[in-house]
Model the fold of this input.
Amino acid sequence: MIYSHIIWDFNGTILDDLIAGIKSENVLLSRRNMPLIDSVEQYHRYFCFPIIEYYKKLGHDFDKEDYNDLAIEWVTEYLKFSAKSKLNDGIKEALDKFKKEDCRQIILSASEKEMLTKQVRELGIYDYFDEILGLDNIHANSKVEIAKEWVETKKPRKALFIGDTTHDYEVASHMNADCVLVAKGHQSKDTLLKCGVPVFDTYHEMLSYAGKQ
Done:
């Protein structure tokens, strides 16, 4: 394998938290008597980065409501629902494969770092990772700056970024890393295909591709 570093997104990529994300938002929408997200397909149409734009698409008005308050409310609900979320099918196999290939594995996420690290530990996969990189807040803003700083510091020989959103592709581009996307998370396959990088339906397919590089 040509890769020295494997950079993983977390939410929707490692963790199968798509339904947890929908349920969390629906609690917030219900409290405000706003229309609920009624399907994965509808969620995929709305979800985007920065996350504040996703909330706006759903109808939240931040002239009337503080974004920070909503973010806190969402995280409170998300932690309840995501406690039941599992690893995506094929993730453990991929982590084992990359470990055997002596690749350094890193998580790079728009989640708050302390919360992220706790989730990784609870999933029993903490020891696979050399670094866990997250934000210092719960606003789920872009992770581009963290990515740039990491590249400048670590100077990886050849990195592969694995994600589930167009934002992951954008981050990989800033890192000069190869990118593959798997349509098992927070955006649809049709949306991901617009990035022009390999898009897979399963992590088994992704691993087969990566192993041939």
